[in-house]
Design brief:
- With 95 residues, the protein is mainly alpha-helical.
- 64% of the residues lie in helices and 6% in strands.
- The chain has helices at residues 27-42, 48-52, 55-94, and strands spanning 13-15, 21-23.
- Strands 1-2 form a two-stranded antiparallel sheet.
- The longest helix has 40 residues, at 55-94.
- The mean pLDDT is 85.
Length: 95
């Protein structure tokens, strides 16, 4: 491959401990700061080592596998509740 490689310049700013931008205040930087703050808050309690070892990816896989099962269980529980209520009402009306 020939040709000049374009260098991607990183944004030039610092995020204060309060989540404020110190540096170039552009919409792109504001969105990046928003994302960084959201990521830091979401990862509260997870060690850096766990992050580096892929715990977020692992957690997403587990959620993707278990969420449908939990939803199905919830739906079945609601169905059983309705059937029990209907049976109790039917018995009550026979008296």
């Amino acid at each position: 491959m020939t040709g000049a490689r374009q260098s991607i310049q990183p944004p030039h700013f610092v995020i204060s401990s309060e989540g404020e931008i110190l540096g170039e205040d552009t919409p792109e930087n504001q969105e990046m700061v928003r994302r960084v703050v959201a990521c830091v808050n979401a990862c509260d309690g997870i060690t850096t080592e766990e992050l580096e070892n892929g715990i977020i990816s692992d957690m997403r896989k587990v959620i993707a596998q278990t969420a449908p099962l939990l939803q199905e269980r919830s739906e079945m529980t609601e169905l059983l509740r309705r059937e029990i209520r209907a049976e109790m009402n039917a018995r009550k009306n026979k008296k």
